[in-house]
Amino acid sequence: MKIDVLTLFPEMFTGVLGHSILKKAAENNAVNYQVVNFRDYANNKHQTVDDYPYGGGAGMVLKPQPIFDAVADLREKANSTPKVILLCPQGERFTQKKAEDLAKCNHLIFICGHYEGYDERIRENVITDEVSIGDFVLTGGELGAMVVIDSVVRLLPNVLGNEESHQRDSFSTGLLEHPHYTRPAEFRGLKVPDILLSGNHRLIDEWRMKESLRRTILRRPDLLDHIELSDEQKKWLEEIKKE
């Protein structure tokens, strides 16, 4: 996968893309990152990328020309038809399902805005997807882009050490993930559930699913409105509700 990021503050991405899983993904050639300052595409000597809004109002608005030219250049160099993603509070709420969809793409371009907003012609003519990471406002799109990139890259083949890791993540199944335990089996009088030490994988899988259902109904019951449970899961859920 090729990921291009258009931003006025490319140095913000140095630490995020240069460490941990995101760094390893690049080293293993699962992904190639390029962070571009779209000010470099401004067609005036002062490299101006914003201007006052028509009709008046507070703040500055990003001009269309630098963004149009930057995206066109990146498309031409990659010889691809990428997804062009605008980080915007008006965009669709980012979900695990959206991350899974984006992970199937070969080329993503993220546009990180600042100031009051974007010229609407950018939204109407350049963008393929608008994404919001939550119902709150940040100073720019950089942090949102980092969140989306992290969630997408970890889904790429051979990025995580165990391919089952992301398949069992919270939200991947529609439910919250079950509790995890590791050694020692007893710590300061606190014991790991006996079932996890039994070696009976069928019962362990059943316990994990029940705990996943328990956590979901207690913490995010709204998630249950969007998934289809099996008859067995419905039975377990009713038992949990009676506890």
Helices and strands in order, then pairings?
Blueprint lengths: L1 E6 L6 H4 L2 H8 L4 E6 L12 E2 L9 E2 L1 H15 L4 E11 L2 H7 L4 E5 L5 E2 L1 H6 L3 E4 L9 H12 L10 H4 L18 E2 L2 E2 L9 H19 L11 H12 L1
Helix pairs in contact: 8-9
Structural overview:
It is a single chain. The chain has nine helices and ten strands. The chain has 243 residues and is an alpha/beta fold. The chain folds into two domains: 2-153, SPOUT methyltransferase, trefoil knot domain (Alpha/beta knot, 3-Layer(aba) Sandwich), CATH 3.40.1280.10; 168-242, Trp Operon Repressor, Chain A, CATH 1.10.1270. The strands form three sheets. Strands 2-1-6-5-8 form a five-stranded parallel sheet. Strands 3-4-7 form a three-stranded mixed sheet. It has a two-stranded antiparallel ribbon with strand order 9-10. The longest helix is centred in the C-terminal third of the chain and has 19 residues, at 201-219. The N and C termini lie far apart (47 Å).
Strand order of the largest sheet: 2-1-6-5-8
Q: Give the class from helix and strand content and strand pairing.
A: alpha/beta
Overall mean confidence score, pLDDT: 93
The percentage helix is 25-40%
CATH topology assignment of the largest domain: Alpha/beta knot
Number of strands: 10
In CATH's first tier, which class of the largest domain applies? Alpha Beta
What is the straight-line distance between the termini?
Answer: 47 Å
- Name the shape in a single word: elongated
Q: Characterize the main sheet.
A: 5 strands, parallel
CATH-derived architecture of the largest domain: 3-Layer(aba) Sandwich
How many domains in all?
A: 2
SSE topology string: EHHEEEHEHEEHEHHEEHH
- Give the percentage of residues in beta strands: 15-25%
Radius of gyration: 22 Å
Tally of helical runs: 9
Output the CATH homologous superfamily of the largest domain: SPOUT methyltransferase, trefoil knot domain
Unreliable stretches: none
